[in-house]
Structure formats: structure tokens, C-alpha cells
Specification:
This is Endonuclease/exonuclease/phosphatase domain-containing protein. Pfam families: Exo_endo_phos (PF03372). One of its GO terms (molecular function) is catalytic activity. The structure is a single chain. The two termini are about 35 Å apart. By secondary structure, the protein is of the alpha+beta class. Strand 3, helix 3 and strand 4 form a beta-alpha-beta unit. The chain has one domain: Endonuclease/exonuclease/phosphatase (Deoxyribonuclease I, Chain A, 4-Layer Sandwich). Strands 1, 2, 3, 4, 5, 6, 15 and 16 form an eight-stranded mixed beta sheet that branches. Strands 7-8-9-10-14-11 form a six-stranded mixed beta sheet, with helices on one face. Strands 12-13 form a two-stranded antiparallel ribbon. The radius of gyration is 18 Å and the shape is globular. Helix 5 runs parallel beside helix 6. The protein has six helices and 16 strands.
Length: about 300
């Protein structure tokens, strides 16, 4: 069944690519309602240390005792019942991490009430609208940067968005990474390179971390690459109290990893409004949270060498 779906997806994406409704920007392109125009901000290994300045007290800050997130691949908001689910799911969430998001009013307008501060890292333009990963928040980030990697077969980019958020009464800064991983490959080299590029930036950060997204982790080899990332960055994974995550070849595609935080609640919800199910998590800053040494060596998976 999945092989048939995969084949049809490849054909559909190819037709989209050669049609006039899809175009690709020449470089990383972040957009936000907080900026007058798009910002070209490519993450690199020097990005994070330069941004880790103590935020001014006038900055809005997240409550370290309650950080709520939802992670969801919204399937380009194509299904009829998507809007009602979306409005209900984002209610009372500090952070909303979306994959396959599009800069359209039906997606961005519901965010204005509770998560008005959003950035989208453009993978491509779909009907003249930016499409990619979008992270929305109840407070503005103090820093944002993006990465992108090109699908080897279909030549459409996948993107990563990294944001930093200050925490109340804490010297710690929360790093949040929103990832949509490469999907269509014959091997794992391109997949590993994308994970490595993100990991190389995140490893410069010494504070708490949340990494969430659609990892397209449908093989043992891809799971091995993810496990290497988890070990390298001293991450933990959710326990996942139910089996509602979408699986392909027996492997879950969507993941939430974290560091320096404790879980207070988590749930994966079953919906028909997307081909992925949303994951909701509530965190608090760990009482034992200690900054990780940002200068430790990155332990390489064989594919990274």
C-alpha cells in the first residue's frame, strides 16, 4: 500500500515541480509578520553562540514551568475539515510547529490571537505562496535561522527552522528546532547530511532544547541516524503513551526530542484532517538542568564522515 502511495506521491510532486504552481527560491528565505520583508538567514555553526546574549528584562519570556507545544504536519491544509481541527489544536499552546505549512490567511490568521509571532522557512512557492516549516509562538523569538536541503530525486527542498526563546527568571535560553526531513532517497547520505547540518548548529547551544517535526523515519537506517543525533546532543525522546503516530514500514514518522526539560503531559491525537497526527506536549524546565558543554566533539555516524 505504501509503495503505491510513494509512487503516486513522486508522480504528483514531479508534476507540481514542472508546472507553474511551484517555484524554488535561490537560497534560504525566512518570512515573518514581524519583519517588513523576507530575511535571508542561513544557520551555521557560529550562529548560536553569537545570539546567546542575556535578554533584556523588557523582553517577553516563556514561563519555564509551563511550555506547551504542538507538532503537526498539516498536509498543506488540503483537507476539508482541516480548519476546525487547527483552531482547536492551537488553543492555549505556547509553541506551534508545523510542517507543510503555507503562508495563507487560513493558516496564519488563526495564529494571531495566541501565537502571533511566527516564522516560516521557505522550501518552495506553491501557487505564489511560501511553503515550508512554520514555527509560531506566544512570545517573539530572540533569534531565528533556517537550513534547507534538496531532495535528491524530486529536487524540491526540505527545511529546518531554529528559534531561541528567553525563559522567565532563568539565565537559560530555549532552543526550538522544527524539521521536515528529506523523504525520497535511494540511500541515506542526503538524509544524514540534513540531520548533521541541524545537529552541528544545535550542538553549539548549551541550554534546553526541543527538536520536533516530520523526520520521515521509515527505515532502520534512518532510525539509526536519528539515534546518533539523540546520543550526540544528549536528547531524550517522548514515551508516547499511545500508538497514534503515523507509521510507515512499522516506523513512526513524527518525533519530539528534548533536553534540559521534564514532561508534564503528552498526547498524540488521531485526526482525519491530515495524513499525519498532531503531537501535543507540555514541558517544564528541569530542576537539575545544567548547561551542556558546547565544545564537546560531535560523535559522527558513519554516514556523516
Amino acid at each position: 500500500m505504501y509503495k503505491r502511495t510513494l509512487f503516486l506521491s513522486l508522480i504528483s510532486l514531479f508534476l507540481l515541480l514542472i508546472s507553474s504552481c511551484v517555484s524554488i527560491p535561490p537560497q534560504t528565505r525566512l518570512i515573518s509578520p514581524m519583519a517588513d520583508k523576507a530575511v535571508f538567514s542561513e544557520c551555521n555553526i557560529n550562529s548560536i553562540p553569537a545570539s546567546l546574549k542575556a535578554p533584556e528584562t523588557s523582553f517577553k519570556q516563556l514561563d519555564p514551568q509551563h511550555i506547551s507545544i504542538i507538532n503537526w504536519n498539516i498536509y498543506k491544509a488540503q483537507r476539508d475539515n482541516w480548519s476546525s481541527d487547527f483552531k482547536a489544536l492551537i488553543k492555549n499552546q505556547n509553541l506551534v510547529l508545523l510542517q507543510e505549512a503555507i503562508n495563507r490567511p487560513d493558516i496564519t490568521k488563526p495564529l494571531q490571537t495566541e501565537q502571533p509571532h511566527w516564522h516560516l522557512n521557505t522550501a518552495f512557492y506553491y501557487d505564489n505562496h511560501e511553503a515550508g516549516v512554520l514555527t509560531a509562538s506566544s512570545i517573539p523569538p530572540i533569534y531565528s535561522c533556517g537550513l534547507r536541503a534538496t531532495e535528491p530525486l524530486i529536487r524540491i527542498p526540505k527545511t529546518v527552522l531554529i528559534n531561541l526563546y528567553p525563559l522567565k527568571n532563568s539565565s537559560q535560553v530555549l532552543l526550538v528546532a522544527n524539521l521536515h526531513s528529506i523523504n525520497f532517497t535511494l540511500g541515506t547520505d542526503a538524509y544524514a547530511e540534513q540531520i548533521l547540518a541541524m545537529s552541528s548548529v544545535i550542538k553549539q547551544h548549551s541550554g534546553p532544547v526541543i527538536i520536533a517535526g516530520d523526520f520521515n523515519s521509515w527505515s532502520n537506517a534512518r532510525i539509526e541516524i536519528i539515534n546518533t543525533m539523540v546520543n550526540t546532543l544528549s536528547l531524550k525522546s517522548l514515551a508516547y503513551n499511545n500508538h497514534n503516530r503515523i507509521r510507515v514500514f512499522g516506523h513512526a514518522l513524527d518525533h519530539v526530542f528534548y533536553r534540559g526539560l521534564e514532561i508534564t503531559a503528552e498526547e498524540t491525537l488521531k485526526v482525519s484532517s491530515s495524513d499525519h497526527n498532531p503531537i501535543k506536549v507540555s514541558f517544564r524546565l528541569s530542576a537539575q538542568n545544567k548547561p551542556v558543554n558546547p565544545n564537546y566533539a560531535l560523535r559522527l555516524h558513519p554516514h556523516y564522515k
